[in-house]
Amino acid sequence: SDGSRLSRQQLIDNSLLLVLAGSETTASTLTVGMLLLGLNPSVFQKLKDEQRALASMDAGVLTWSQLDKECPYLDVVIKEIMRIKPLSVNGSGRYVVETLVVDGMQVPKGYNVGYSIPLTHANDPEISLPDGSHMDVVKGFKPERW
Q1: Tell me: the pLDDT tens digits for 59-87?
Q2: Can you tell me whether residue 107 is helix, strand or coil?
């Protein structure tokens, strides 16, 4: 191979990697979601109530479009699941466009900076609590914060 095209085996390997990586993150998110809903039965009940009410308007049928556009509580539950147990520890890097100073430290133009998704949520001044309970799966899971 001249490096410009993938071989058949490389295509198969990359395809399998994408399928496995995509299904693993989805499975992990669903597992965390089930854990959080099991630990927080009032949230689970409110979620069921929202969807039952919506289904009752359309002969007991829920469509993907309804779930996507007409279930605001489902939306905030998903956001809270992703906030409290993000699967990605590090976000993608960003390059500094121009030299800047952050907390007294100079960050030069062109420097690659990264961020931590869990630390971003843990240190969010809008929601953080001194005891860290805002990140606890039982005490901190509050979809209503959104």
Answers
A1: 878 888 888 899 999 999 999 998 888 87
A2: strand
